[in-house]
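Please produce the structure of this protein holding pyridoxal-5'-phosphate.
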Amino acid sequence: MEQKILLKESDVPRQWYNFAADLPTPLLPPLGPDGNPVSPDMLAPVFPMNLIEQEVSQERWIDIPDEILNILYRWRPAPLKRAVYLEQHLKTPARIYYKDESYSPPGSHKPNTAVAQAWYNKQFGIKRLTTETGAGQWGSALAFACKLLGLECKVFMVRISFEQKPFRKIMMQVWGANCVASPSSETNAGRKVLEQMPDTPGSLGIAISEAIEQAVTDPSGTTRYSLGSVLNHVLLHQTIIGLEAKKQLEYAGEKLPDVVIGCAGGGSNFAGLAFPFAAEKINGAEMTIIPVEPAACPTMTRAPFAYDFGDTACTTPLLAMYTLGHAFVPPPIHAGGLRYHGMAPLVCQAIVEGLLEPRSYHQNKCYEAALTWAATEGAICAPETSHAVAAAIDEAQKAREEGKEKVILLNYSGHGLMDLSGYDAFLAGKLTDYELPDEDLQKFTKELENLPKAEIRKTGKW
Ligand SMILES: Cc1ncc(COP(=O)(O)O)c(C=O)c1O
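Below is the modeled complex.
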């Protein structure tokens, strides 16, 4: 039996898959400050028009330019591996496959979209990109992409991660980016937060406000903002993961998986793997599709579906999504990439439809799963990825109890070699589990009552 299912470069998909074309109920439109849907032109100061076109596209397939593919070949096609040693350890009849996105130079799935976004910006004449980063994975991915494409890159890194993960900052510097801790004194948004909360650990919402502010206030007009998750075009670029995995499962002699799993911060690696399979579910296939989040930031499992801003300073359009509220300041758990207050609208609408079954886990359980993974498969996974690993272990154990030969597919979104401080704290028994109290959930989501209501629309088929 093959442990690795490898593709040729010629097998890499030539088109991305746009889930919006198959979503049974369309997304609610993003709204502007006046409560009316935003037009593509209104996004133009923030994103280049070629990416805005992808953001609003209803085309099912979108061509991947050859120049982008040529850069992706540095690490794509990514291997699909069978977790045979974990299977043996769990004594499960399940066959567990994982798509290994840790192979990219920055170490995660994030460069799949970073390269695409940097390329489209460059085509549009943009010289500099600004962005935010949580764990530093996205910042390092964009720094890498900008270096290869000759763009300048500015990264606002959530302060708690900036302090916990100095090596990610150094990676960004090696790839030529300028990385500062957020909130910073460089922007109005950052200064305002620092005045009110000088000791804040920061949040992705604050860092996004800072990065957007710097992009839209550049007098030369050649700076744009780049987001590493949440938006439709980002999820689109990540579908290369699921499209490759589908081919690989076929080569392995498998039909469709029974269970598809990904961790979800803003939803991009989960959607990248899951959407090509969710399309099969829409067409009648039976499948359990599970996005996993931390119990400390329970966006999909406990938050309301509502219109909310994507950032703390309320500068973005309003998106219809599950949200903990834009003022949410997450607890400093170690999965820095899973602390965003919202979730990709496409993922949220798929949840509303009943196509997905989100769940949440505490961080100690996830680190235990990561240690089991390291002891069996060998690799040390990112703290975010450990949420998917924990769910895969639970599903494999369930298959054993039920005596069922299930096929479980998970996204191994990144390695954890730059995140060892979390492992250190876990091994020293210093990690505490944190469940967001109901009072805090109510406090942070209170402001949503003053925003337009998001209607729940579903076909009721799933
Ligand atoms: C390794 C890894 N996995 C998952 C995530 C979560 O992001 P998303 O939900 O967009 O995939 C991150 C975010 O930083 C990450 O670094």
